[in-house]
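Predict the 3D structure for this chain.
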Amino acid sequence: DWSSGVCSSDLALAGLASCQIVVCKYWAAKEGIALDEIAVDVDGDFDFRTMFGFEGGGRAGLTDVRVAVRVKGPEAPERYEELQRLVDEHCPALDLVGNATPVSTTLTVAS
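Done. Predicted structure below.
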């Protein structure tokens, strides 16, 4: 049944949240920034009309994505702001969602 399961856009957003956490922990360790806690919430807007062939829809994918990062630790706020800049600069999932990526599709019809 095509209608069961998780929406691919929800999986993409979950992947972005996960990637932000992993990259944040990496760069915190690399830069010597103490990080006691991190939480990332990601949500986005999606218009299902195009996916289902209804008129009036826009693009077939996410139209807006919001990332909310909360950190806790002993550092000055400026250190965490610099950390987030590094995360955003190096997060592969953020790059994928935020920039146009060439995609090629191949089709194989089984006999």
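The CA atoms of residues 9 and 62 lie 7 Å apart.
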